[in-house]
């Protein structure tokens, strides 16, 4: 059993197409297909369901082999990265998954990593759900993730809480004035429930937390638009027909203004997550160090804001 066979098989499982998998591996389709057939012969079981040589999914044995293939190829990649680090400088491509509310946090994390390790490159995959990021980490498709998290964390993963994000209501000023007479200092859930609103998609942890917070205040908000992308929510709000509930960090165009959401306030913890493995890889140590640095910076910023507030009162 060759490492190249496992690599081809892992890519085929991800691409779900022989031609695309071959192109991704920079080999011909016949080369990849022959490597997969040799792997099947060695393990003694069919791994791929085929129809006229087309990929039709993995067999039960294929799913089992894929789990090991992902682990083995990840270990090989981490070994190469760790050897480079031992020789003096970490050189790797760090793959980071990010939830819609985590883009700003990802920028801070990647900046700290890049500052400490100039030869590191990044593959940023935005707009994912926390659950998708957790599964991507378990499948060794991601090295780190910016996720929402609960106090109990995520089993099998090292989670570092770096801060939180509050959700605000955005819209064009004319819509605020039409609905409320002026652009208010804040909006309540009850006021939002009688307005046309765009929200993050059902099933996303941010949406679930929004629904939970509203339920605690006995408020029901029925959106006219759901989207898994913050950018799509902002674009819809710019048209002036409805408001959008988005993270407070979201970059707004000149056409939009943001109003804090209160009663209830919807705030979610933001954390950096990675697989909790032994030994700890060089990439994992770099992620941990950067996450700790960001968390310390945020804590200092919060303390300074509280001190400034106390002094002004």
Automatic annotation (TrEMBL):
This is Transcriptional regulator. GO terms for molecular function: DNA binding; DNA-binding transcription factor activity. The keyword Cytoplasm does not apply. Keywords: DNA-binding, Transcription, Transcription regulation. GO terms for cellular component: cytosol. The keyword Transcription regulation applies. Pfam families: HTH_1, LysR_substrate. Belongs to the LysR transcriptional regulatory family. The lineage of its organism: Bacteria, Bacillati, Actinomycetota, Actinomycetes, Mycobacteriales. Residues 1-58 form the HTH lysR-type domain.
């Amino acid at each position: 059993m060759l490492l190249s066979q496992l690599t081809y098989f892992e890519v085929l499982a991800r691409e779900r197409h022989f031609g695309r998998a071959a192109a991704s591996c920079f080999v011909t389709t016949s080369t990849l297909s022959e490597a997969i057939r040799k792997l099947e012969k060695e393990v003694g079981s069919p791994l791929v369901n085929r129809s006229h040589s087309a990929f039709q999914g993995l067999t039960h044995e294929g799913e089992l082999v894929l789990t090991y293939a992902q682990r083995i190829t990840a270990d090989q990649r981490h070994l190469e990265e760790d050897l480079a680090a031992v020789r003096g400088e970490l050189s790797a491509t760090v793959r980071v998954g990010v939830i819609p509310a985590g883009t700003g946090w990802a920028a801070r994390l990647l900046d700290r990593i890049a500052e400490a390790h100039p030869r590191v490159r990044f593959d940023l995959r935005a707009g994912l759900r926390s659950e998708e990021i957790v599964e991507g980490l378990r499948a060794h498709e991601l090295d780190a993730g910016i996720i929402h998290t609960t106090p109990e964390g995520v089993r099998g993963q090292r989670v570092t809480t770096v801060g939180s994000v509050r959700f605000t209501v955005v819209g064009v000023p004319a819509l605020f004035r039409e609905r409320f007479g002026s652009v208010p200092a804040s909006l309540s859930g009850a006021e939002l429930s009688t307005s046309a609103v765009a929200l993050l998609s059902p099933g996303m942890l941010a949406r679930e937390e929004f629904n939970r917070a509203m339920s605690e205040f006995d408020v029901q908000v029925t959106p006219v638009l759901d989207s898994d992308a913050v950018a799509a929510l902002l674009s819809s709000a710019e048209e002036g027909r409805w408001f959008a509930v988005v993270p407070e960090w979201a970059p707004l165009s000149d056409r939009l203004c943001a109003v804090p959401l209160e009663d209830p306030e919807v705030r979610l913890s933001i954390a950096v997550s990675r697989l909790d493995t032994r030994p700890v890889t060089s990439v994992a140590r770099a992620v941990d160090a950067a996450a700790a640095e960001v968390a310390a910076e945020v804590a200092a910023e919060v303390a300074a804001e509280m001190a400034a507030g106390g002094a002004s009162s």
